[in-house]
Amino acid sequence: MLIDTGANVSGIDEQVAAQLGLQTTGPKKVHGIGGPGTANEHIVQIRLSGAGTALWLVVSAKLQGAGNIALIGTDILTECVFVFDGPNGTFSLSW
Q1: Is residue 13 within 8 Å of 64, Cβ to Cβ?
Q2: Where are the alpha helices (DSSP H) in 2-88?
Q3: At CA 90, angle to CA 14 and CA 65, rounded to 5?
């Protein structure tokens, strides 16, 4: 899992999206470190510990090469409290 405060939209690895059988809702224009492009958009249900479930729009991209299967962007981070403890190398999210 990757926390990316510079990402406007959250994402899931495209192979994981395929393995989960996620339906594509359509293409979405994106702009990342590699420049502008288009990614598939999906609706996913995320279970939030102690807060139930929520539906989110996410895009699929190649993330596993970086050792991650999902990326949390500011679309989700703006809905929660994000605390980063640099000296201890930990973070927490709460809703």
Answers
A1: yes
A2: 14-19, 74-77
A3: 25
Question: Tell me: the pLDDT tens digits for 53-76?
Answer: 788 889 998 887 767 899 999 998
Residue 2 has pLDDT above 80, yes or no: yes
Give residue for tokens 């999206």. 17
CA quadruple 18, 19, 23, 25: dihedral sign: negative
d(CA 88, CA 78): 23
Q: Where are the alpha helices (DSSP H) in 1-95?
A: 14-19, 74-77
- Determine the Cα–Cα distance for residues 31 and 75; give it in Å rounded to an integer: 15
pTM: 0.81
User: CB of 15 within 8 A of CB of 68?
Assistant: no
CA distance 54 to 64: 24
